Amino acid sequence: MKVLVVGANGQIGQKLTEMLHSHDEHSVLAMVRNQEQVEAFSKRGIEIVIADLEGSVAHLKQAMKGCDAIVFTAGSGGSTGADKTLLIDLDGAVKTMEAAEAAGVDRFIMVSALQANNRENWNEAIKPYYVAKHYADRVLVQSNLTYTIIRPGGLLNEKGTGKISVGNQLERGYIPREDVAQTIVEALSNEHTKKRSFDLIAGDDQISVALNKL
Question: Residue 66 in contact with residue 82, Cβ under 8 Å?
């Protein structure tokens, strides 16, 4: 499976891109926003495409040409305002879905946020982000794409443990970014994750075991 990673320069995106690059069954196309981000990937032999989530659907469709799956792990970042959150985390995500449908790329994995599906559980400190994630996820569910929506808890830069907990009503918790990336890799071809949404935090089950329980 050739996988387009949207947001490859982000913290999860970098780990995911590296995992897919060294994977026996998958290959990766790293989507970055500008030329300045290219060198870090090209020197590792990773294929790159430059595309902007604030560009057109046609522009994004061209960027994903030849791909079999898309992982959306882009974000406007914590230092931007609600306007950028709207443009990237919501409209950018929806445009990527529209481009995927137009390009015939069926498999789509969305990295969302813990309990984004339940308004009463949103983190008030970053409410615009939760609004964007909530509605982007809803559009994805209503699309024709074979989706998986992964809603991780608080993200850590610690080394991954390979053990997770998944569900639809998990208490607030944390998870290493490395384990989020590994969960995405395993979800790509796991039938139990197709047309499914779930919260993700650190837990006691091996990743494959947890996903097979969905």
Answer: no
